[in-house]
């Protein structure tokens, strides 16, 4: 696409700004690993909230969301539960506080608070590093694939899309590696501001050019309804018949069975806690457990504008682009609806701002991912096994190399992936299927030991590669129970066939974290020397808050969706539900948070 000089100037100005900030922040970040990767745990929670929300506001994910809302309408609001997006609710209710109480630097470092048997501890640390690097590399591939697709539509054809993607990745690497998490958080705040402004502009643009009747004329019956039966009941044949083929190919026609599988998977993965990526890093970077919980809760609120943007793009595409889409090849990639719409309907100047906004979205996700991945290579591999007694500044310098290494592998991996959906499917259905079982039990079952954790994680990782190859006719979400079950067997077998962790370690963990679950033997051990120790019985309140919180979270998705498509009656109903849930959570969650540690 040919861009006006004004649009190109805005893009260049933005890229230069982030590089300059990374350069000037390098000295403070280089003081220690804690300063480099966690900002010295001095950053206020609301700044980390904006950074975390910006990291989740990624370009590849936004392109995918546009495609699912375009095809499935309001029912597409359920599909992000594949990740699951409502895991933020589990974090805000109780898991963020549990994670932050550890005081660890990384997920691998966290293992030293839970396990003490030397063999089991080393095995558990190593397998977390393996999982973290697989996760980070996969997300790097996911981001690179999305950026290349976006560049193929938006940027001038002077260079190949992959060349543009590689250049932008290099810029992200430079400022993120120079300034560490401080650079990441600061640029994320700028990017988040840009993205919010962009969302409002696109939403306003869509609502002033399009009426509810315009949208109804180009969508099938039921497109604007959240509700569904056993089947999806969306018939695109009179309008865009190729979309029926896509629905059948993706396996969502029998929507209720798929929804139940998605809920099962979502709850299990959420109970496992944050994955060892930038989610956990942000929690560990907060100043105390209370701020960790607040950060997780308010991320959902901060992502409200994203759905204005997504629905605005969908509305513009449906009304102004449907006639062109009828002429497209049936194999047209609907993940590219977003860039096609902006290319066709946005004027000079605003187009440059939009491109900057989406580059910001990409770079925000990418810089957070590589910063978190480098932490595992440096702290849990290089420092622990290769150079344990070096000066902290030496480790920070090695972090630069680690960042480039992680990204290089991710970019290479992306060349073997056909689409964003392929990468996302393996991450959320395959890899996370093997993560859930051992990480649920590490919080809720005292008898889990390091050997069991290792066996469960390795069973899951291997299964996530092997089972999809053995059963290619099934989707990742359908294979999730099998991967989870094999991982659970590995976890239980490894734990029960090896000796338990010593009670002193388990007792110290229970005192610090105060989890609920099957911790009876540990509580009795502690009570022998301290009668004030009592069993944590907060689980009924936590489960109640999770139900209310998931509803609260979902309303933050559907209210902006209904607003932009101008379905005002369901919008006000959902807004009322959100206010009611907010009132309940104020009483049962916010008012009960710890005031100090």
TrEMBL record:
It is found in: Cell membrane. GO terms for biological process: proline transport. The keyword Ion transport applies. It catalyses: L-proline(in) + Na(+)(in) = L-proline(out) + Na(+)(out). It is a multi-pass membrane protein. Pfam families: SSF. GO terms for cellular component: plasma membrane. Keywords: Cell membrane, Ion transport, Membrane, Sodium, Sodium transport, Symport, Transmembrane, Transmembrane helix, Transport. This is Na+:solute symporter.
């Amino acid at each position: 696409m040919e861009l006006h000089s004004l649009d190109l100037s805005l893009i260049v100005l933005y890229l230069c700004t982030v590089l300059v900030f990374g350069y000037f922040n390098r000295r403070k970040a280089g003081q220690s690993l804690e300063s480099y990767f966690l900002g010295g745990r001095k950053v206020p929670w609301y700044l980390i909230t904006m950074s975390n929300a910006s990291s989740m506001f990624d370009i590849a994910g936004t392109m995918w969301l546009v495609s699912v809302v375009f095809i499935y309408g309001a029912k597409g609001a359920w599909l992000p539960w594949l990740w699951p997006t409502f895991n933020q609710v589990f974090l805000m209710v109780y898991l963020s506080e549990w994670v932050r109480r550890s005081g660890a630097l990384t997920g691998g470092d966290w293992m030293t608070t839970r396990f003490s048997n030397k063999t089991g501890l080393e095995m558990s640390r190593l397998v977390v590093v393996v999982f973290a690097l697989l996760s980070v590399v996969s997300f790097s591939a996911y981001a690179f694939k999305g950026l290349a697709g976006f560049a193929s539509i938006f940027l001038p054809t002077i260079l190949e899309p992959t060349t543009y993607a590689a250049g932008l990745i290099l810029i992200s690497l430079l400022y993120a590696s120079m300034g560490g998490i401080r650079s990441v958080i600061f640029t994320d705040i700028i990017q988040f501001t840009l993205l919010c402004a962009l969302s409002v502009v696109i939403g306003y643009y869509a609502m002033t050019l399009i009426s509810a009747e315009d949208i109804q004329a180009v969508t099938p019956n039921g497109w604007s309804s959240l509700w569904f039966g056993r089947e999806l009941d969306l018939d695109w044949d009179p309008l865009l018949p190729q979309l029926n083929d896509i629905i059948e190919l993706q396996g969502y026609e029998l929507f209720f069975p798929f929804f139940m599988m998605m809920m099962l998977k979502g709850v299990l993965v959420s109970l496992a806690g944050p994955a060892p990526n930038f989610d956990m890093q942000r929690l560990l970077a907060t100043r105390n457990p209370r701020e960790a919980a607040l950060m997780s809760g308010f991320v959902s609120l901060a992502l409200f504008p994203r759905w204005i943007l997504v629905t605005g793009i969908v509305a513009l595409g449906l009304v102004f682009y449907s006639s062109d889409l009828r002429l497209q090849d049936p194999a047209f990639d609907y993940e590219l609806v977003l860039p096609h719409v902006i290319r066709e309907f946005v004027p000079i100047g605003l187009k440059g701002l939009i491109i900057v906004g989406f580059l910001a979205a990409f770079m925000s996700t990418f810089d957070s991912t590589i910063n978190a991945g480098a932490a595992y290579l440096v702290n849990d591999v290089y420092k622990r096994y290769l150079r344990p007694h070096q000066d902290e500044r030496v480790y920070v310098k090695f972090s630069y190399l680690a960042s480039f290494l992680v990204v290089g592998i991710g970019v290479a991996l992306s060349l073997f992936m056909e689409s964003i959906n392929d990468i996302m499917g393996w991450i959320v259905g395959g890899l996370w299927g093997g993560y859930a079982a051992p990480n649920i039990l590490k919080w809720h079952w005292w008898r889990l030991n390091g050997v069991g954790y290792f066996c469960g994680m390795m069973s899951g990782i291997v299964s996530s590669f092997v089972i999809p190859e053995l059963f290619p006719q099934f989707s990742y979400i359908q294979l999730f129970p099998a991967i989870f079950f094999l991982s659970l067997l590995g976890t239980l077998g490894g734990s029960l066939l090896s000796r338990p962790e010593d009670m002193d370690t388990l007792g110290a963990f229970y005192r610090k974290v105060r989890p609920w679950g099957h911790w009876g033997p540990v509580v009795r051990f502690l009570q022998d020397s301290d009668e004030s120790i009592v069993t944590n019985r907060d689980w009924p309140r936590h489960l109640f808050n999770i139900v209310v919180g998931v509803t609260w979270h979902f309303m933050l998705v559907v209210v902006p969706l209904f607003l932009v498509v101008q379905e005002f009656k369901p919008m006000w109903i959902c807004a009322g539900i959100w206010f009611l849930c907010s009132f309940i959570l104020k009483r049962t969650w916010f008012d009960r948070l710890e005031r100090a540690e």
